[in-house]
């Protein structure tokens, strides 16, 4: 083999090897949404701006056919799926599982997803499902009291309508948390979180909007931490 042939052979080999290495480095995520998909958009923007190198949104799933999140996915040419969520969770999960396998999903991101999975489904993806919760959760996800950065304590709000619960309780600070999903609702280990001050005269809508702005940063931070 001549020197030129040898050089061309090496270049061709390197070119063939690079995509393989790149493929191995990619984290394929499925983003599950039920509404506007603003947190999905935050992830899309972070990936397109290369804030999340090696991350790919491989699938978007919604339990609502008219969810804006599906339109965001289609606008960015992402695979999108409407999956009706009936009363029988086992039946729906049995449809979702092979789809996640088909798309080779590494991480499931619940971004405004308003359905609860069964313990059996969660067990298939240990520390591979993360959730955004619009309230402050303790590091281990357990307990009913959270100590804020200034040393004061606030109740831990789980489940639905937690923005309203925070306002009704008259506390001065709430926030958002990204945590791993466990069978107990909103009780998994925390990945990251951020506090949000409750201002005098806050409405549920105004406070929710400020919490959402924090969520957009947190969901990107959480995925980045998982990829490190």
Short description:
The chain has 2 domains: 24-125, Formyl transferase, N-terminal domain (Rossmann fold), CATH 3.40.50.170; 131-228, Formyl transferase, N-terminal domain (Rossmann fold).
Primary descriptors:
228 residues; alpha/beta; Rossmann fold; seven-stranded mixed beta sheet; two-stranded antiparallel ribbon; 7 helices
Structure description:
The chain is α/β, with parallel strands linked by helices and 228 residues long. The protein has two domains: 24-125, Formyl transferase, N-terminal domain (Rossmann fold, 3-Layer(aba) Sandwich); 131-228, Rossmann fold, CATH 3.40.50.170. It has seven helices and nine strands. The strands form two sheets. Strands 3-2-1-4-5-8-9 form a seven-stranded mixed sheet, with helices on one face. Strands 6-7 form a two-stranded antiparallel ribbon. The longest helix is centred in the last third of the chain and has 24 residues, at 204-227. The chain is globular.
| Assembly state (oligomeric) | single chain
How much strand? 15-25%
The main sheet orders its strands as 3-2-1-4-5-8-9
CATH-derived architecture of the largest domain? 3-Layer(aba) Sandwich
Please write the string of helix (H) and strand (E) elements: HEHEHEHEHEEEHEEH
Count up the helices: 7
Task: Write down the overall mean pLDDT.
Answer: 91
β-strand number: 9
CATH topology of the largest domain: Rossmann fold
Task: Categorize the overall geometry.
Answer: globular
Helix/strand layout:
Blueprint lengths: L2 H23 L1 E7 L4 H11 L6 E8 L5 H8 L4 E3 L6 H14 L4 E4 L8 H5 L5 E5 L11 E3 L5 E3 L6 H8 L3 E8 L9 E8 L6 H24 L1
Helix pairs in contact: 2-7
């Amino acid at each position: 083999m001549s020197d030129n042939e040898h050089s061309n052979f090496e270049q061709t080999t390197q070119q063939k090897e690079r995509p393989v290495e790149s493929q191995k480095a990619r984290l394929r995520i499925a983003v599950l949404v039920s509404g506007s998909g603003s947190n999905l958009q935050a992830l899309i923007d972070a990936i397109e701006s290369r804030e999340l190198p090696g991350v790919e949104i491989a699938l978007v799933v919604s339990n609502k056919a008219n969810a804006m999140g599906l339109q965001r996915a289609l606008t960015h040419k992402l695979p999108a799926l409407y999956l009706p969520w009936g009363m029988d969770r086992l039946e729906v999960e049995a449809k979702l599982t092979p789809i996640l396998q088909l798309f080779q999903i590494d991480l499931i991101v619940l971004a405004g997803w308003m359905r609860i999975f069964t313990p059996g489904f969660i067990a298939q993806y240990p520390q591979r499902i993360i959730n955004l919760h619009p309230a402050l959760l303790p590091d281990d996800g357990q307990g009913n009291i959270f100590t804020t950065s200034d040393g004061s304590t606030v109740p831990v709000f789980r489940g639905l309508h937690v923005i309203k619960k925070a306002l009704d309780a008259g506390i001065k600070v709430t926030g958002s948390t990204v945590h791993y999903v466990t069978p107990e609702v909103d009780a998994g280990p925390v990945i990251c979180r951020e506090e949000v001050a409750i201002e005098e005269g806050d409405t549920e809508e105004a406070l929710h909007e400020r919490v959402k702005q924090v969520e957009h940063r947190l969901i990107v931070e959480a995925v980045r931490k998982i990829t490190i």
